[in-house]
Amino acid sequence: MAKILDGLKVSKEIKSEIKAEVEKIIKSKKRAPHLVAILVGNNGASKTYVNSKVKDCQEVGFTSSLLKFPATVSEAELLEKINELNHSKAVDGFIVQLPLPKQIDQEKIIMAIDPRKDVDGFHPENFGKMALEMDTFLPATPFGILTLLERYNIETKGKHCVIIGRSRIVGKPMSILMGRKDFPGNSTVTLTHSYTPHIEKFTQSADIVITALGDPHFLKSEMIKKGAIIVDVGITRVDDDSKKGYHLTGDVDFESCAEKAAWITPVPGGVGPMTRAMLLKNTLLAYKTSVYND
Ligand SMILES: Nc1nc2c(c(=O)[nH]1)N[C@@H](CN(C=O)c1ccc(C(=O)N[C@@H](CCC(=O)O)C(=O)O)cc1)CN2
C-alpha cells in the first residue's frame, strides 16, 4: 500500500517557516510583504483559489489585496492596472488568476508583468531563467511538487519521470525542472500529451508519474509499475448531491493506484496546498529582492 505525500501537512510546515521570517521582518520595524491577486470574471474554482491565497497571506503575516474585474473587462483596462502595480512601491508581487476570459490575450497580460514582481514565474524572462538554472521565481505548482518530493526525501536522480500534460502552468515547466541538475531533478523526462499514442507504454515503465490533465480517474493501476511515485495535479469538480454540490477528483484512480504505488499524492490535500505555499515563498523572495527595500 502506498504512503501518502501529504501536501497539506508540508504546506503547513512551510507556512510556519514563512510566518517566523515575517515576524522577524516586522520586529525590525520594516513593512510586511504585500501580494496582489487579480481575479477576472466569475469562475467558481478561480474564486476559491484567490480567496485562499488572500487567507494564506493573512495567516503568515503578509498584507494582500484582491482586485476583482468583471468578465467583460477590456485587455486595455487590465494592462493599465498591471502597469500601475509594476510601478507601485507598496507591491512586492502580483498574480493574474488564470484562466482569463476569451477576449483577453493571456500571453499579452503575462508579458506586461514586471518579471521582478512575477511571483507566478510565468513571464518568458523567468521561464527562460528557470530553464537555464538561474535564480528566479519558479511556477508555484511545479515548485510545490519539487518541494514535496524533497521534504519526503524521494530520490529523483537517474529516475524515469513521465509527465502527462504540457500546460504552461504545470507540464512544460515540470518537464524542465525534473531534468535540471539541482536536487530534486536529474531525472530522465518524458513529456506526454494529447497526441502521444498509447500513453500507458510510457507510464508503465516510469519511476515517477506526474499527471496534469483534468481527466478524472485517467491513470489506472494497470498503467503504472509497482513501487512507482504518483503525483496527481488534476483537480476536477464533479457535481453531486452534497451540500457543496460537488466533490473534487484527481486524474489518478486513487484506490487502485495506491495498492501498487510506493508514494502517492491525494486530491484534495496533495499538490493544491503546496501550490499555495510556494506562492507565499515566491512573494517573500520578491520582497527580499525588491529594489524598494534597501
Ligand atoms: N495565476 C495562476 N493561475 C492559476 C494557477 C497558478 O499557479 N497561478 N494554478 C491553478 C490553480 N491554483 C492556483 O491558482 C490552485 C489550485 C488548487 C489549489 C488548492 O488549494 N486545491 C485544494 C482544493 C481546493 C478546493 O476546494 O477547490 C487541494 O487540492 O487540496 C490552490 C490553487 C490554475 N490557475
TrEMBL record:
Catalytic activity from the UniProt record: (6R)-5,10-methenyltetrahydrofolate + H2O = (6R)-10-formyltetrahydrofolate + H(+); (6R)-5,10-methylene-5,6,7,8-tetrahydrofolate + NADP(+) = (6R)-5,10-methenyltetrahydrofolate + NADPH
Record GO cellular component, one term: cytosol
PROSITE patterns tied to this protein: THF_DHG_CYH_1 (PS00766)
Pathway participation: One-carbon metabolism; tetrahydrofolate interconversion
Binding site for NADP(+): 165-167, 235
CDD domains in the cross-refs: NAD_bind_m-THF_DH_Cyclohyd
GO molecular function: methenyltetrahydrofolate cyclohydrolase activity; methylenetetrahydrofolate dehydrogenase (NADP+) activity
EC number, as in UniProt: 1.5.1.5, 3.5.4.9
One BP annotation, GO: methionine biosynthetic process
Pfam families: THF_DHG_CYH, THF_DHG_CYH_C
Similarity comment text for this entry: Belongs to the tetrahydrofolate dehydrogenase/cyclohydrolase family.
Known partners and oligomeric status: Homodimer.
Protein name: Bifunctional protein FolD
Gene (name only): folD
